[in-house]
Amino acid sequence: MVVAVKSPVTAYAETVSDGEIVAGKWVRLACERHLNDLATGPARGLRFDEDAAQRAIDFFGFLHHSKGEWAGRVFKLGPWQEFVVGSLFGWQ
Known about the structure:
Number of helices: 4
InterPro entries: Terminase_largesu-like (IPR005021)
Radius of gyration: 15 Å
Structural class: mainly alpha
Number of domains: 1
């Protein structure tokens, strides 16, 4: 059985929209827009490329902090950062 893994962008949008993650008005609206665009975007010529979004998110795993207490550690995006980066690179 193949289980589809949800994009971290969509997963974050759903958890914010469901109220599981507390967020401000503009973040909630951005998450709702993402979910609405997934449903209605193709009719308007929009598409969300999950692979492109994931590649952009994964890129940060190749970066390392260079200074301070985190020096040498891999840069790990938080869920809200994955939402921003994935949205920027995933929507086409």
